[in-house]
Write a structure and sequence with these properties.
By secondary structure, the chain is mostly helical. A two-stranded antiparallel sheet has the order 1-2. Helix 5 crosses helix 7, helix 7 runs antiparallel to helix 8 and helix 7 packs across helix 10. The radius of gyration is 18 Å and the shape is globular. The structure holds 2-acetamido-2-deoxy-beta-D-glucopyranose (5 copies). Belongs to the chloroperoxidase family. GO terms for molecular function: metal ion binding; peroxidase activity. It comes from Apiospora kogelbergensis.
Length: 281
């Protein structure tokens, strides 16, 4: 499917509120910015940390300590939450840094990363079999985003603030002024979109590597965990769009700075819920 993404953004009201290049809500020193020379990965969550300068902006020479501090400050992850991921990267010797304890984000985009850190059936990337599995792919993402209801015209993404929310990052109570659900991605919706993408990729890619169902579940659990709004018990659509489409922390839409502390257990709970729903479809 060929999609005019710019038109889509305008139609859904997303661009209007982004007009101009001023983003006053970005915390000082953590303004969103990236250049084409920066080292970036297939993982939006990591790229975002570099785009905002929580990780080195060039995306290079990252170690466990640096990533842990960045994710805690920006997202509110518990300290050392991603240590296992870094261990996996380093043990697989994906790094091209010449050291045993650092990696460049771009190392996760190398062919060697396929089926180690980068998997088939991504929500926003194509499969390695078709070429580029590293960069945001509008066609792939549009199908995911549509399934998540991100382009529904009947919701106002600013409603997140209008229905009892506050400007300090508490995104508010989706059940008050508005019939909130359409402003949020629920675990169930996320799971169904993930499962549909997985089936679609499996059918299209004769080299599709099966057996990473939990890997794809992890992807959905991870973005929901990162963009979760406790008050709504779901992820605001505006936050999810910012995360994938701009690789940007949605400060503009109320994401708190520093990140509100998250429970590590919540990631496990989300994974379990997604797993259970997936096995039921
Ligand atoms: C990561 O790098 C920082 C800064 O160079 C250093 O202080 C820290 O000890 C390093 N951590 C690890 C696990 O190598
Ligand atoms: C990395 O680890 C390997 C094996 O453990 C070792 O042989 C090598 O010298 C280490 N490289 C550096 C730069 O420390
Ligand atoms: C944000 O505002 C809400 C409602 O006014 C309040 O309950 C909450 O404690 C505030 N959170 C922070 C992090 O200041
Ligand atoms: C959220 O909305 C419901 C339904 O209107 C209300 O009962 C509840 O008190 C609200 N919660 C908050 C935190 O405002
Ligand atoms: C996949 O995840 C579920 C839920 O966390 C778990 O019960 C199951 O054992 C996992 N399967 C594999 C192969 O890791």
């Amino acid at each position: 499917m060929k999609v005019n993404f710019a038109l889509l953004l305008v139609a859904s009201g997303y661009v209007a509120s982004h007009a101009g290049m001023q983003y006053p809500q970005d915390p000082v020193g953590h303004e969103w910015r990236r250049t084409s020379l920066d080292s970036r990965s297939p993982c939006p969550g990591l790229n975002i940390l570099a785009n905002h300068g929580y990780l080195p902006r060039d995306g290079r020479n990252i170690n466990k300590t640096i990533l842990s501090q960045a994710a805690t400050e920006a997202y509110g992850f518990p300290p050392h939450f991603n240590d296992g991921v870094v261990d996996g990267i380093l043990k697989a010797h994906l790094q091209t840094t010449g050291t045993n304890d650092t990696f460049h984000l771009g190392d996760l985009s190398l062919p060697a990363s396929h089926n180690v850190c980068e998997f088939d059936g991504s929500l926003s990337r194509g499969d390695t079999f078709f070429g580029d599995a590293s960069h945001f792919d509008i066609g792939v993402w549009y199908r995911t985003g549509s399934r998540l209801g991100l382009y529904d015209l009947n919701y106002d993404h600013k409603h997140v603030f209008h229905s009892g929310g506050s400007s300090n990052g508490t995104a508010g109570n989706g059940s008050t002024a508005n019939p909130g659900p359409t402003a949020y991605v629920s675990v169930e919706t996320a799971t169904l979109a993930q499962a549909a993408r997985y089936r679609e990729a499996m059918a299209a890619n004769k080299d599709f590597t099966v057996g990473v169902v939990n890997g794809s579940i992890g992807t959905s659990a991870f973005y929901l965990y990162t963009m979760w709004d406790d008050a709504a018990q779901a992820a605001p659509k505006s936050w999810v769009r910012s995360f994938f489409e701009e690789e940007r922390i949605p400060y503009k839409y109320g994401f708190p700075s520093p990140g509100a502390p998250k429970r590590g257990d919540h990631m496990r709970e989300l994974s379990q819920q997604i797993y259970d729903i997936t096995m039921g479809v």
